[in-house]
């Protein structure tokens, strides 16, 4: 089982994908980073797909939670190249997609990192975070994002990982939210005043 970190008193089986949904500024990103950090403390792999912040900022924030120098922590940065920083190159820690629209590229990078961790390094437990689905939906239609997520969540399932995906609930209509919810095994809802709540499909 995977624990969902210090903020959420819940455990989920390997292969689980969770949607972290709530209005802006309710700590969705922070919560997702906490969930990943609690795995890193146990030697699990952590992969962050970021469509909002550059890799440096993500790693900086992650480092405030857990020391990861010699640990399997990687970032897929979908921001830096889009901002015109052309000379960035992939290394062991950071992979660059050309933009949040480059969903094929994001998927390939995820598969590469999972292969390295899961097959090459024998790390059987990996946590993956995507922040944020709302950015993807700004650039692509719902059908495209749904297809991408179908493959992405399936990949996490196939390696027995844990996926956490943040979305700004207030930015999308009910139809969009209900369509996307089908892909997830549980939903964590963040609130402006109060603790986040967890609803798992098995409940």
Task: Report on the architecture of this protein.
With 203 residues, the chain is an alpha/beta fold. 35% of the residues lie in helices and 23% in strands. It has 6 helices and 10 strands, in the order E-E-E-H-E-H-E-E-H-E-H-H-E-H-E-E. It has an 8-stranded mixed sheet with strand order 6-5-4-7-8-3-9-10, with helices on both faces. The chain is globular and about 40 Å long. The mean pLDDT is 96.
Helix percentage? 25-40%
Q: Which strand order spans the largest sheet, edge to edge or round the barrel? A: 6-5-4-7-8-3-9-10
N-C termini distance: 16 Å
Structural class: alpha/beta
Number of helices: 6
Strand count, sense and barrel status of the largest sheet are: 8 strands, mixed
Mean pLDDT reading:
96
How much strand content do the residues show? 15-25%
Report the count of strand segments: 10
Shape: globular
Write the H/E string, N to C. EEEHEHEEHEHHEHEE
Residue windows where pLDDT falls under 50 for at least 5 positions: none
Radius of gyration: 16 Å
Write down the oligomeric state.
Answer: single chain
Gist?
By secondary structure, the protein is an alpha/beta fold. The protein contains 6 helices and 10 strands, in the order E-E-E-H-E-H-E-E-H-E-H-H-E-H-E-E.
Task: Please give a handful of descriptors for the protein shown.
two-stranded antiparallel sheet; 23% strand; alpha/beta; 8-stranded mixed sheet; 203 residues
């Amino acid at each position: 089982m995977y624990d969902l970190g210090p903020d959420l008193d819940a455990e989920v089986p390997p292969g689980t994908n969770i949607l972290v949904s709530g209005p802006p500024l309710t700590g969705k990103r922070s919560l997702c980073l906490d969930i990943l950090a609690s795995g890193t403390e146990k030697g699990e792999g952590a992969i962050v797909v970021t469509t909002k912040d550059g890799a440096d900022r993500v790693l900086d924030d992650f480092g405030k939670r857990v020391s990861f120098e010699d640990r399997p922590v990687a970032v897929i940065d979908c921001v830096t190249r889009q901002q015109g920083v052309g000379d960035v190159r992939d290394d062991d820690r950071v992979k660059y997609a050309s933009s949040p629209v480059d969903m094929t590229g994001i998927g390939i990078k995820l598969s590469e990192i999972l292969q390295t961790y899961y097959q090459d390094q024998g790390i059987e437990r990996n946590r993956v975070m995507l922040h944020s689905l709302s950015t993807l939906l700004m650039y692509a239609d719902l059908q495209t994002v749904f297809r991408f997520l179908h493959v992405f969540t399936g990949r996490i399932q196939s390696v027995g990982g844990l996926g956490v995906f943040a979305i700004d609930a207030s930015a999308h209509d009910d139809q969009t939210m209900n369509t996307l919810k089908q892909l997830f095994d549980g939903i964590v809802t963040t609130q402006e005043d109060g603790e986040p709540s967890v609803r798992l499909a098995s409940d």
